[in-house]
Give the backbone structure.
Amino acid sequence: MNTAEPSESSKTSSPSIDLVAGAVPLTRQLVDIYSESHHEQEIADAVEPALRAIENVEVTRRGNTLVARTHRGLGDRVILAGHLDTVPPADNLPSRLGPDPETGEQTIFGLGSVDMKSGAACYAHAFATLANSPELACDLTLVLYEGEEVATKYNGLNHLVQSDPDLLAGDLALLGEPSGAMIEAGCQGTIRVKVTALGARAHSARSWLGHNALHDLARVLVRVADYEPQDVEIDGLTYKEGLNAVVAESGVATNTIPDEAWAFINFRYAPNRSVDEALTHLYGVLQVGTPDSPAEGFSVFLDDAAAAAAPGLNQPFAAKLVEATGGRVRPKYGWTDVARFTELGIPAVNFGPGDPGLCHTKDERCPVAQIEEVSRQLIQFLSR
């Protein structure tokens, strides 16, 4: 059912990928293909023919983003999503297999072994294994996308949300971000604003002739420091808020009253708020007005706003996943692409092997046992 024609790039020579041999060898195959953000063509060219070789599967390619879907009429549909790009290498390619120096566990070392080619391997292997199996319990959509490690405008999943939302239709989405082989449900939303206090410059010996912008900003920073973040319980998980000043700057000279002072304020909020609700709450705390209507002596710039994602663990398929993983669930602290599925009305969770603390490090590595565990639990979850 490969209705879309193979891309021209996929017809060129590329490494041979085996999706069914196992998630561990597939992880090494993917890690060994250089795919820094903006350079994902080679890995997409390698994976595309392997997906097209699966019978009765529809494969679509948009740029270097691949979508494969079964159409077996099984009622429910689960989306398995993972990004193919990595951060720049740090002398950590190609992959190698050996004992972890700290734990002694058999481990895959190499760029992307955690973030997130092991997760992508588990998902692609499960898709290829079950696509035509009588054991498959639901239809599947596999999304392997480009541009996650860079700005949103390059994000292949975001492109699909905008151009082909029908390809992302489903009842539950899993994102293979590293979660230590346990479910990390939902994610915090994030807002970042730049608050600028505007004053009048003067010699510090005649300070009454000026207006100290840094003092005005300091009062805003005190409100941030005094803020009491909430703990919000959703579906039995506790999400923690955080409101922090993260960058600040002011000063002209050591004998001059500053006429400008600014700070970036980052609000990490729980999934009980929408973006608009979180913005309203934040502006109320800061008391500096809004970008469209700033308070006198201030300007406000909204630098970034991303929605939170609810855990969705009350959804039947999500409950089955919790059972398959032995009930090992925790809230996700941070923002991931699960929020893009939430915006489409699809419950989503993070589930993948690897320690997220090793992402983007020179010593990035993933235990083989975790890859095998996630692969086994995923296939169990998707089977009758």
Q: What stands out?
A: Confidence is low (pLDDT under 50) at residues 2-12. The CA atoms of residues 312 and 347 lie 5 Å apart. The domain at 9-186+309-382 is CATH 3.40.630.10 (Aminopeptidase).
